[in-house]
Amino acid sequence: MDAEGTELADRVRALLTSEPSLEEKRMFGSRAFMINGRILVGARSGGTLLVRLTEEHGAAMQTRPGARIATMGGRTMGPSWLDVDGAVLDDDELMFWIDAAREDNAPV
């Protein structure tokens, strides 16, 4: 992962340190942050944030600035996986996306 992705991972880690079940793993060429065994977000090269949402919420959230359906290895993922451009991820926007993913991936 490049410097922008590493910096984003550091920012995400700092925001999630209070989560007791937080796990961090390398996967999909990124740094994935998991809560309760489920991927919440990932820090990708270029400072792109990978966000996991429900399909319905993901489809609606594509209209936010910098958001688009994620692609991995040339394959377009479904609407529940979004990439958010690092250029739009100020602290408030990063927290917005983390909170949205946390809400959509809460234990049932």
Describe the structure.
Helix content is 32%, strand content 32%. It is α+β, with helices and mostly antiparallel strands and 108 residues long. It has a single domain, classed as Aspartate Aminotransferase, domain 1, CATH 3.90.1150. Strands 1-2-3-4-8-5 form a 6-stranded antiparallel β-sheet. A two-stranded antiparallel ribbon has the order 6-7. The longest helix is centred in the first third of the chain and has 14 residues, at 3-16.
Class derived from helix and strand content = alpha+beta
User: What is the class in the CATH system?
Assistant: Alpha Beta
Overall shape: globular
First and last CA, distance = 33 Å
Give, in spatial order, the strands making up the sheet with the most strands.
Answer: 1-2-3-4-8-5
Query: What is the CATH fold-level name?
Result: Aspartate Aminotransferase, domain 1
Report the biggest beta sheet as strand number plus sense, adding barrel if it closes. Answer: 6 strands, antiparallel
Q: What is the share of helical residues?
A: 25-40%
Give the overall pLDDT as a whole number.
92
Radius of gyration: 12 Å
Put simply, the count of helices is 3
Strand content: 25-35%
**Number of DSSP-assigned strands:** 8
Give the ordered list of helices and strands: HEEEEHEEEEH
Enumerate the spans where pLDDT stays under 50 for 5 or more consecutive residues: none
Number of domains: 1
Q: Can you name the CATH architecture?
A: Alpha-Beta Complex
Helix and strand arrangement:
Elements: H1 3-16, E1 22-27, E2 30-35, E3 38-44, E4 48-52, H2 55-61, E5 67-69, E6 71-72, E7 75-76, E8 81-84, H3 91-104
Antiparallel strand pairs: 1-2, 2-3, 3-4, 4-8, 5-8, 6-7
